[in-house]
Each structure stands twice: as C-alpha cells, then as structure tokens.
C-alpha cells in the first residue's frame, strides 16, 4: 500500500509540474528579456527562439541587470529602485523580492554561488545577501575622503577567490572585497585611481580588473593576481588632443570584450572603439565607428565584435572583424538598440530594439534576421550561460 501511495504521489507531482510549466524544460537554453517601462520580464528559449512566459511586478527596471544561480534555475534581477528579485525560471514566478536600497545599479554572484552582492547609488555602498533566502549578510558603506562622504558604487563584478571588485564613482577608488566570511567581509581600498571610474570589466581569466575613467583619459587597471602592486593608470594619452563631444549615454565596459590578446573598449565622447594589447596594455589601434559606442561585445569565439551606439545613432549596429580590425557589416535593426546578447556558442545574437517594441535575432555568419519577438520597450537581454562565466 505504501508503495502504491508513493507512486501516486510522484505521478501527481509530475502532473502538477507539467501543468504549471508546460513541457519540461532545461535551463541551459533559457534567458530573460527586461521590459524596462512596465517593470516586467520575459523568460525566453534561446534555441527556438520563443517567449515562454511573462512576469510582472519587478519595480523600476530602467537600468536593470541580472545574474544567475550556478544551476541556472534562478535569475537575480537588480532594479533601479533598489529592488532585488529572485525569479524561478522553471516555475515562471517571483520566488522572493526585497527592497534593499534607494537606488541600485547592478550586482554580482559569488564564485560558489552562495552570496549575492549589490552595488548601490543610494545610499552608496555594497550589500551582501544569502542567495537562497535573500537575508542580508553585510553592508559595506562606500565612505571616502576626510569628510566621510558616500560614493555611488559602479563596476561591481565577481572575482576568483570568493571576492568582489567595485569602483567608487565620486571617491575615485577601487575596492577589493574578500567575502570568504560574508558576514564579516574584508575590504582592501585602492585610492586615487583616476577621476570618476564609471564602469569596469574583468578579463575572462579573472586576472585583471579594468575601470573606465569618465573624468579623465585612460583606464585604471588592477592586477588581481598581484594586488599588492596597486592600480596602474593606462592609456592616459589617447585622444587628449581630440575635440570632445557631448556624451549622450555612458558607455559600458562590462562584458567579455577581451578576444585573444586584444581588449576592445568604447571611447568616451568619441566615435571610436579602442584596441588594446593586453600583453603590454598599450593602445594599438583606434577604429572609427558610426557613433558614440555604448556596448562593445565580443562573440564567444572572439572573431567578431558587435557595437551599438548612443543617440542619435542608436538605430545602427556595426560588426568589427578582428582579423583586420575593420568594420565588416553595418545593420539597421530599428530605433534604439539598447543591448546585445550572444547565444552560448555565438551562432546568433539577440538585439533589444526598444522603440520598435521588439527583440530581433540575427545569424552572426550571414547577418540575416532569423527571428523577432514582441516585447514592451525591451532593454537588457541575459542568457543563463552567464552563470558559468567569471565577472558577468
């Protein structure tokens, strides 16, 4: 009798799961599309491609970003209103949601997948949370200077060794946070790294953390294998004699724009993508592009780099071939291309076209459009393969 009851219970459970979610799904080909103006997201299948579900009630997503649990089941959404929302990608629902600050800019997940770190504008600082319960574990105020002011925190990434790295925009500092004991994290502060670090990237091997500088030329570079050597200022001379244009949208460094020995970054206030030799950290080429670049994103194999632009050129996307550093293709997907995300192996790329209320998918070899999905003012697109990458 007990065996019969057990079989019936299992059958009912499986029936409930299938009824709740439709066909069984794997997490490896899932993704999330942010719908910024409605505070909602779509869960998508990246292989078909198709929209699977629509979830509302996520607050202000005007500058939202996402990280994933290591099993790829949960997405953690960082909202501009300070919201931290944990989404169950298999049950198509909000698992937990808290308001942890007044204004949040992004976050990261620790190497072991147990700690969520959030970078905040208001109040300035970093908070650490339990990835399962969203219980707050620690708060690290971004205090700087003799007057103990609070700085906005930007460029927060996870790093090997159960660490996080971030930058202080007004504080002109980079912080290395040791979260091995997340209730009592250690902080190593690097001061006077350059004026107004605005965003950052981590090289794919977790070796270098580079912060772009908005208030002066160059980048601030921290060697995480040898942090005792301090922060190096590189590319101080690029474009110093060029006429500066108004910056319509802050460029973004986050993402793997490292391809082989090359680092490609958007130039602030210029119509250029900069190519940096990561062996010597020297500028080797300035690639003219159609406008002020926002995202400069490398295809997973490193052969192509796709670039989108700030207004008034945000209807354009250019593709750079790293064989010769020339623009290979120019596309016109529609008004306000805000974000780009490659499929895990790079055969396709998804573009969020905000003002056309759609997501478009392109074949990265033929540049043919292969699919389009309706979406309400889409912005960020995030696929679950990010769960297995450092610094994403």
Automatic annotation (TrEMBL):
Record InterPro entries: Cyt_cd1_C_sf (IPR003143), Haem_d1_sf (IPR011048), Host-pathogen_enzymatic-act (IPR051200)
Pfam families assigned: Cytochrom_D1 (PF02239)
Protein name, entry field: Cytochrome D1 domain-containing protein
Organism annotation: Methylomonas defluvii
Organism lineage: Bacteria, Pseudomonadati, Pseudomonadota, Gammaproteobacteria, Methylococcales
